[in-house]
Known about the structure:
about 110 residues
Amino acid sequence: MIKALFLLLVIGFVSFTPQVFAQESETQELFQEANEHFVNGEYKEAIQIYDNILEIVPNNFSTLKMKGVALSNLAQDENLINYHTDSLEQFYTIIQYNQNDVLALTGLG
């Protein structure tokens, strides 16, 4: 139930987010490709692409949020604590810059 609610929140976030990057179109295409993997439940693939984006644009909040949610979902699917810990790190990074970020606060529990 929580996973489904969290997924709906993320999909809504992605759907209504304005242009995510002012970077090259390649970065935008990568973000869109990662989100397609995310929506299809292919979290490992999405995380790899989010990592590539973060190498280009460190601390991009949209990418950090999506990576955090993907890690959280992967932790639930595979019941692995290290993914959950990584997820919390992503959300904590966001909270350091924006203490009122709803998605990050939800991700932290």
